[in-house]
Specification:
There is one protein chain. By secondary structure, the chain is of the alpha+beta class. The protein has four domains: 77 residues, no CATH class; 324 residues, no CATH class; 62 residues, Dna Ligase, domain 1; 326 residues, no CATH class. The chain has 29 helices and 20 strands. The strands form five sheets. Strands 3, 4, 5, 16, 17, 18, 19 and 20 form an eight-stranded mixed β-sheet that branches. It has a four-stranded parallel β-sheet with strand order 7-6-11-12. Helix 14 packs antiparallel against helix 18, helix 21 runs antiparallel to helix 22 and helix 21 packs antiparallel against helix 28. The radius of gyration is 32 Å and the shape is elongated. 47% of the residues are buried. The N terminus and C terminus are likely disordered.
Length: 846
């Protein structure tokens, strides 16, 4: 960028070129084409960095977002949870003097809305004195009658608040929307800042952007202080609608940032008008709920009975004052755009002062004079439903044909209470980076506030959203819009005051160790199982594929027979191959194995396991470390690449894919071994891994030894390679492959991490660390079961098990392995019954 004067509103430099459109206010350039004073430092820094280097860092930011799994889910979008968060690398800069005005206006507005909510659900003086039309309350779907009279002891209904700001062509800021129900944006704003700090740290430092972290700490401290009855170690949970919710990433992000459990409705229960979290150790009372779902979904008992997302009896607990809910149920009432028409009078009445920042001009058609104004100026206005409801759209009369415009006017005349009109604001523009260079896009900035214990504090920045295209005024993330990191310049005092009370954080023993819900434990258990199932499948195919080259000692024909034996025995052979005669057509088998690598439909295949691993990792994202999550994301991203169409290239890609998956899973296992604390979450994940590895090894021994044809040398060799034990075998036994020694190594050797015995020893230890639920047991029944299983394996008589009977079969070994398998399955079921039973419906899908 350059500061040189130009005859048009554009700026240029080496590799840079930006020219905003005529008309709208441009945030970066003034009318003379100069960078505005608060943009100059950023412009100079970008010019010094150079366009090529900046685009390289922008690509790094995109990869970082993808690696971190930052998403914004869109209902009905083909990408689903995989839709990445869009961050434009050029930040949005706000002048500190302007920010001071915005900050005070947002604090005032949050205070005003809190007072309005308190009045409507309390004394209703505003309705009595005709300061607020009753039609906007009692006809409003957001007014929850069952919440009337429910008052938080702190008097704070609105703990979190968000407001969307836009700048008109004259440079004035206008408020175009308020968010009071479960405002989103805090987590995304912080993630945007962290990405900027990783990719353009020098620019961030040069511009002296105000930090964000203190706001989040003060918000959580205030939440702790909201706990009823002054609990010594308040328990805070984040209530989510689940991974399919559009802002689920933020739910998980805040949960991890605050070290507060992320829970669904089925993780909570209400007993004696108190809310409890269902954990492995029993029921733990919940003091504060940060809800991230809409009002009417929160309690199917008193609110929306057709939804299973909420907590039955939650409103009863709120009414009793035993739990604080942020934001209070029913706070979505004031999100209606029609309320903006009455805010100036309400502010004067409730706060005794005028609004510091105006709302966009609004007329509610339920009043005669405003309705006449709307009908006389229809073409210059935007028509919205009075109450925001699903399926109702915004109308732009200026774009309608004469007939459609007449129809709209008739609808307004017939049902005036249902319509509100607003002035159409031409949004300001800011530069964004595209594949064509810098281009202007319309922007809206979301500013976020939270109660800090004495008043509202404002996040020094916010979440700036970017329109989808050059001419578009649509800035909705639902419709594909992007975002910007928002910088308030100057490292002066942040909006969080030093005198804000800081509550005592929960003691370490009161949190993570005992806060694991049964649902999360269930998902961690199955995450471990699918990770092991995937590894077992990958290792098997990685061993079988090269054998078809014909370069093995046993030859290609023997390799084909061995491969078919394993695939049939493990029920992995596709339908079209089950009765086919392969003969010497080894290339057909080679193509089939390569296809199995990419097939996502086979329930026991690699693709299926990858899908389950992805689904479960999202369910427990807040429980995984950043490094562990990145490994899983890299595993997913590598597998998402479409395979080549040509058979030879497809084979090469399949082999490379198998190697990459093994390496990623090894990194996953290594991180789990070295990094996490040995809490209940880690135990259940490892229990899942050990159960699955034991079952997979038992199946391999059944097919590769018990059912192996004579001679079984080829099958034994495959077994050792799949179990990554060939080197150990040769260094230990110094002899040709023998059935007895293979069984000893893979069945009974407690020092071999791949053996059945090793898994049982580990299971016995992991189960011993689980809570006993105060049943009076000195030792859990599950640990006793694991001990008996281990004894069964330790006492195995290998010389008898390896013998073939008169028909050449090993029926004794097959029966023995079946007994061990049944024991492992029974142990898994017993753990489920004791600790995970309430999550049974979710497991049925697996």
């Amino acid at each position: 960028m350059s500061n040189a004067r130009t005859s048009t509103r554009s700026i240029r430099g080496t590799g840079w070129a930006y020219k905003p459109p005529e008309g709208p206010w441009d945030e970066c350039l003034d009318e003379a084409g100069h960078p505005r004073p608060h943009w100059r430092r950023l412009a100079a820094g970008l010019r010094r960095m150079g366009y090529a280097e900046f685009t390289r860092r922008a690509e790094g930011a995109r990869r970082l977002i993808q690696t971190n799994g930052v998403t914004y889910n869109v209902y009905g979008d083909p990408q689903g949870k995989e839709r990445p968060w869009l961050l434009d690398p050029i930040p949005f800069v706000i002048d500190p003097r302007e920010w001071d005005q915005i900050e005070q206006a947002v604090i005032q507005r949050a205070t005003l809305f809190n007072a309005i909510i308190g009045d409507v659900y309390g004394s209703q003086i505003l309705l009595r004195d005709s300061l607020l039309p009753p039609e906007l309350v009692f006809a409003n779907p957001g007014f929850l009658r069952s919440c009337h009279g429910v008052r938080p002891r702190s008097g704070v209904y609105l703990q979190n608040y968000a407001v969307d700001l836009a700048r008109a062509p004259n440079g004035n800021w206008w408020i175009i929307a308020d968010r009071t129900q479960a405002p989103s944006g805090m987590g995304y704003a912080l993630e945007n800042r962290l990405v900027s700090a990783r990719t353009i740290p020098s620019l961030l430092d040069q511009c002296r952007a105000r930090p964000l972290a203190r706001f989040f700490d003060a918000t959580f401290d205030a939440l702790l202080a909201m706990a009823p009855n002054g609990a010594a170690s308040p328990r805070v949970v984040v209530l989510t609608a689940g991974p399919h919710n559009e802002t689920y990433f933020e739910h998980s992000y805040l949960s991890r940032h605050w070290n507060a459990p992320l829970v669904g409705g089925d993780d909570l229960t209400v007993r004696d008008r108190r809310v409890y979290l269902k954990t492995l150790a029993g029921l733990n009372q919940v003091d504060v709920i940060v809800r991230r779902m809409d009002d009417d979904f929160c309690d199917p008992l008193e609110l929306r009975g057709d939804s299973l997302l909420g907590v039955p009896g939650l409103l009863q607990a709120a009414r009793a004052g035993t739990v604080y809910i942020a934001n209070a149920l029913g706070s979505g009432l004031v999100e209606m755009p029609a309320l903006m028409a009455f805010l100036p009078g309400l502010c004067e009445h409730l706060l005794g002062e005028p609004l510091r920042l105006p709302s966009v001009a609004t007329w509610w058609c339920g009043q005669d004079a405003p309705r006449r104004h709307v009908l006389e100026n229809l073409e210059r206005l935007v028509i919205k439903p009075t109450f925001p409801q699903f399926g109702q759209r915004v109308e732009f009369p200026a774009t309608l044909a004469a007939g459609a415009k007449k129809t709209l006017a008739d609808r307004i005349e017939a049902q005036p209470l249902r319509f509100v009109a607003q002035e159409q604001v031409e949004l300001s523009t800011a530069p964004v980076l595209t594949h064509r260079g810098l281009e202007p896009r319309h922007v809206v900035t979301r500013v976020l506030a939270a109660w800090d214990g004495t008043s509202y504090s404002v996040l020094p920045g916010g979440l700036t959203r970017v329109a989808t295209g050059r001419q578009s005024l649509v800035v909705s993330m639902q419709l594909g819009g992007g975002s910007k990191d928002t910088w308030v310049l100057g490292r002066g005092p942040t909006t969080v005051r030093s005198d804000a009370p800081l509550a005592t954080r929960p003691a370490p023993e009161s949190v993570a160790a005992t806060e694991l819900s049964s649902r999360v434990a269930d998902n961690l258990f199955w995450l471990g199982r699918y990770a092991e199932r995937l590894e077992s499948m990958v290792r098997l195919i990685r061993v079988l594929l090269p054998d078809l080259s014909g370069e093995t000692e046993l030859g290609r024909e023997t390799a084909i027979a061995t491969i078919l034996h394993f695939l049939k025995g493990l029920n992995l052979l596709p339908k079209e191959f089950r009765h086919a005669v392969i003969g010497r057509q080894w290339w057909r088998l080679q193509g089939m194995l390569a296809q199995m690598v990419f097939d996502q439909d086979h329930a026991l295949g690699i693709g299926w396991c990858m899908r389950q691993l992805r689904r479960l990792s999202w369910e427990v994202k807040e429980r995984l470390s950043q490094d562990t999550w990145r490994v899983l994301q890299q595993l997913e991203q590598g597998y998402a690449v479409a395979p080549p169409a040509q058979p030879d290239r497809r084979l090469v890609a399949a082999i490379q894919q198998l190697d990459d998956i093994v390496i990623a899973l090894a990194a996953f296992a290594g991180l789990l071994s070295e990094n996490p604390t040995r809490g209940h979450g880690w135990r259940f994940l490892d229990i899942g891994r050990r159960v699955e590895r034991a079952l997979q090894m038992i199946e391999l021994l059944r097919v590769g030894v018990a059912l192996a044809p004579y001679p079984d040398d080829a099958c034994l060799e495959v077994l050792l390679q799949v179990a990554d034990s060939s080197t150990t075998y040769r260094s230990r036994y110094l002899t040709a492959i023998r059935t007895r020694y293979v069984l000893d190594l893979l069945l009974t050797d407690e020092s071999n991490p791949r053996s059945v015995a090793y898994q049982l020893v580990t299971l016995q230890d992991r189960i011993g660390g689980l809570p006993l639920h105060d049943t009076g047991e000195r030792e859990s029944a599950e640990r006793v079961m694991a001990s008996k299983l281990l004894t069964l394996v330790r006492e195995a008589r290998i010389d008898q098990l390896k013998r073939r009977d008169a028909t050449g079969q090993r029926l004794t070994l097959e029966a023995y392995l079946q007994t061990v398998r049944n024991g492992v399955t029974d142990l898994s079921d017993a753990l489920t019954t004791r600790y995970l039973s309430h999550s049974l419906p979710s497991r049925l899908e697996r």
